[in-house]
Amino acid sequence: TEAERAQNTAALELIYATGMRVSELVSLPVAALRGDPEVILIRGKGGRERMVPLTRPARAAVARWLTLRDAAPADSPLGRLVRGTGARWLFPARGAAGHMTRQAFHGMLANLAASAGLPPGAVTPHVLRHAFATHLLDHGADLRTVQMLLGHTSLSTTQIYTLVAREHLQQLHQRHHPRG
Question: Is the pTM of the predicted complex or chain greater than 0.90?
Fold first, then answer.
């Protein structure tokens, strides 16, 4: 459905734009995204909070999802969720928590990957988080900034991403430099 596509797009844009963990994504309160914010507050592991900027594509995808979410007829499945247990959450769902589960997000990613002809497991929430960090580093972000955006308490955890970025640069150099 149109609403399902809009929800999936919003979820994907948000997780890639922010590098948040899947548990952080699925438990986002809808109030955090009202009013087209340029920055959102993410509650991470251990209850720690961090501010993370949103990209224009993520903001547009969220705006589209919120429009459809809010306009869902009261007697529709989405409308019942939005007006019931899922009212508080950006991504409402049936179930005790009232929001999309981590497993549901994994399943959505797997289905999208399969429909794109990618092998199972090629696209996971952690792959998207890793892509976020690696792309920042590849484009000149410093390690401390990436650490803060990912919500890592230890810089050594973030340094894992520099190894991958360095290996990628070495491969590019070897492939494209005349003396590589």
Answer: no
